[in-house]
UniProtKB/TrEMBL annotation:
GO MF terms, alphabetically ordered: heme binding; iron ion binding; oxidoreductase activity; sterol 14-demethylase activity
EC class name: oxidoreductase
Classification of source organism: Eukaryota, Metazoa, Chordata, Craniata, Vertebrata
Domain of life: Eukaryota
Signal peptide: 1-20
Organism the protein comes from: Pan troglodytes
Function per UniProt: Sterol 14alpha-demethylase that plays a critical role in the cholesterol biosynthesis pathway, being cholesterol the major sterol component in mammalian membranes as well as a precursor for bile acid and steroid hormone synthesis.
SUPFAM superfamilies, per the entry: Cytochrome P450
Name of the featured protein: Lanosterol 14-alpha demethylase
Pathways per UniProt: Steroid biosynthesis; zymosterol biosynthesis; zymosterol from lanosterol: step 1/6
Enzyme Commission number(s) from the entry: 1.14.14.154
PANTHER family referenced in this protein's UniProt entry, alphabetically: 24-HYDROXYCHOLESTEROL 7-ALPHA-HYDROXYLASE, CYTOCHROME P450 FAMILY 7
Length: 453
C-alpha cells in the first residue's frame, strides 16, 4: 500500500505537477510575481541526477532563477505557491517581519508536530512558543557550558564514553565522518544536556521524519518513514516520561536541562506538563544534532593543530571554556563553513497579510522562502564567493553570543584533533546531498590515523 501511494505521488510529480502561473520573464509588476518554474533548466552538480522537482537540487535552480528574474520570483508546486527572496535587501523582509504577518506555525507545524509532539514548538501560538524558548535558554548559559566542558575532559564517565567510542576506530582507516559525528553528538549531547537517563538510538528514526515527503505530503499516508517516525516518537516519549518521574520522585537536583524544565513555569505560574517537557527535550536535541553534525562534517580538515598546541600547551591538557575562546582560527573556520555549507536548506514563512518587497506584492497564502545557501554565495555580495577563506573574518568583532554558539563545534574538533590526523581520500571533497532537508555531505569518507603519543 505504502509503495503504491509513493509511486502514484512520484508519477504525478514527474508528469508535471509542478505548475507555473502567468507572468513574463521581465516581470510585469502589475502581476503578483514572476513564475519561473516552467522556464528554468536545471543544472545540477556533477554526479547528481536532474530532479523532477526543484528541491532536489534547489540551490542551482534558485541561482539560475535569481540571475534570470532577479531577487523575487515565485512558482507553484503540488498546489502551493512559493515566493523566494534572494539577496540581502529582499531577504530582509522575512527577517524583519512580525509573526502575525509572515507566520512560522502555518509552515512548520505539520512537519514538526509528529516529531516533537503536541503542545510545544510550532504546535502552539507564537507567544507560548516564545516562553518555551526562554525556558530552554535559561539552561543554556555560559556558566552551564563551562561546567559541561570541564566535565567532558575529566577522566570520568563522559570522557570514558567518548574514548570508548573512538576505540572502535582502531589506529587507522576510513570513516563516514557525518555518520560518525552524528552518533557521537547524540551520545554526548543527550548526556550533557538532557541528563544521564536519556540515551537511545531511536533518534535516527525520529530524525527521519524531517524529509521532503513529510513536508509535502499529509502525515496520515502509510509511508514507511512516517511509521518509523511515529513509533520512535512514542518510544522516546516513554523513555522521557520514566526519566521525568524518576527525577520528580527522587527530588534530586541535577544541573541539566531536564531539571531546568522541571523547575520552569509559564508567566501565569503554570508548570510544564510531562508531555511538554518531553517534547521540548526532543526538539532541543534534534535541533542541536542537525546543526552540529552537519557543520562538523563539512568542516575542512586543514584546521590548524599547531594553533591548539600554542594555546593549550605542548602536552594538550584538558580543555577549558576560556581556551576554546582563544582558538580564533577554529572560530573563523566554523564561520566560513557555515557560510558555504549552512545546515538549513530553506527558511519559510506563510504570508497572512499582503507584503511588499522591491516593487512586488506578495499576496496572503504564499509560502515566503529565503535560502541561506544561495544568499551566502551571491557574486554581487561576495568577492571570493566559492572559496573557503576563513581569514575574511579577521577584522570581525563577534558578539559574545556568537562565540558561545561555536563552543560545541570547537569542543568536538579540539578533541578529535588530539586523537587523530585526518586526510581527504584521493583529494575527494563531498558534494552536497540535496535530497535531504538538511544540507548533508554526499558520501563524506575520510582517512584517519591515530596520532603518536
Amino acid at each position: 500500500m505504502a509503495a503504491a501511494v509513493g509511486m502514484m505521488l512520484l508519477g504525478l510529480l514527474q508528469a508535471g505537477w509542478v505548475g507555473a502561473g502567468p507572468g513574463d520573464g521581465e516581470g510585469d509588476r502589475r502581476q503578483p510575481l514572476v513564475h519561473a518554474a516552467d522556464r528554468l533548466h536545471l543544472h545540477p552538480q556533477p554526479g547528481l541526477p536532474v530532479p523532477s522537482i526543484p528541491w532536489a537540487c534547489h540551490s542551482i535552480w534558485e541561482k539560475n532563477a535569481y540571475e534570470k528574474y532577479g531577487p523575487v520570483f515565485s512558482f507553484t508546486m503540488v498546489g502551493k505557491t512559493f515566493t523566494y527572496l534572494l539577496g540581502s535587501d529582499a531577504a530582509a523582509l522575512l527577517f524583519n517581519s512580525k509573526n502575525e504577518d509572515l507566520n512560522a506555525e502555518d509552515v512548520y507545524s505539520h512537519l514538526t508536530t509528529p516529531v516533537f509532539g503536541k503542545g510545544v514548538a510550532y504546535d502552539v501560538p507564537n507567544p507560548v512558543f516564545l516562553e518555551q524558548k526562554k525556558m530552554l535558554k535559561s539552561g543554556l548559559n555560559i556558566a552551564h557550558f563551562k561546567h559541561i566542558i570541564k566535565k567532558k575532559e575529566k577522566k570520568e564517565k563522559k570522557e570514558k564514553e567518548t574514548k570508548e567510542y573512538f576505540q572502535s576506530w582502531g589506529e587507522s582507516g576510513e570513516k563516514n565522518v557525518f555518520e560518525a559525528l552524528s552518533e557521537l553528538i547524540i551520545l554526548t549531547a543527550s548526556h550533557c544536556l538532557h541528563g544521564k537517563e536519556i540515551r537511545t538510538q531511536l533518534y535516527a528514526d525520529l530524525d527521519g521524519g524531517f524529509s521532503h515527503a513529510a513536508w509535502l505530503l499529509p502525515g496520515w499516508l502509510p509511508l514507511p518513514s512516517f511509521r518509523c517516525r511515529e513509533r520512535a516518537h512514542w518510544e522516546i516519549k516513554d523513555i522521557f516520561y520514566k526519566a521525568i518521574q524518576k527525577r520528580r520522585q527522587s527530588q534530586e537536583k541535577i544541573d541539566d536541562i531536564l531539571q531546568t524544565l522541571l523547575d520552569a513555569t509559564y508567566k501565569d505560574g503554570r508548570p510544564l506538563t510531562d508531555d511538554e517537557v518531553a517534547g521540548m527535550l526532543i526538539g532541543l536535541l534534534l535541533a542541536g544534532q542537525h546543526s552540529s553534525s552537519t557543520t562538523n562534517a563539512w568542516m575542512d580538515f586543514f584546521l590548524c593543530y599547531l594553533e591548539q598546541k600554542t594555546v593549550c600547551g605542548e602536552n594538550l591538557p584538558p580543555l577549558t571554556y576560556d581556551q576554546l575562546k582563544d582558538l580564533n582560527l577554529l572560530d573563523r573556520c566554523i564561520k566560513e563553513t557555515l557560510r558555504l555549507r549552512p545546515p538549513i536548506m530553506i527558511m519559510m514563512r506563510m504570508a497572512r497579510t499582503p507584503q511588499t518587497v522591491v516593487g512586488y506584492t506578495i499576496p496572503p497564502g504564499h509560502q515566503v522562502c529565503v535560502s541561506p545557501t544561495v544568499n551566502q554565495r551571491l557574486k554581487d555580495s561576495w568577492v571570493e564567493r566559492l572559496d573557503f577563506n576563513p581569514d575574511c573574518y579577521l577584522q570581525d568583532n563577534p558578539a559574545s553570543g556568537e562565540k558561545f554558539a561555536y563552543v560545541p563545534f570547537g569542543t568536538i574538533w579540539s578533541t578529535m584533533l588530539r586523537l587523530y590526523e585526518f586526510d581527504l581520500i584521493d583529494g575527494y571533497f563531498p558534494i552536497v546531498n540535496y535530497t535531504t532537508m538538511i544540507h548533508t555531505p554526499e558520501n563524506p569518507l575520510i582517512h584517519y590515523k591515530q596520532r603518536s603519543k
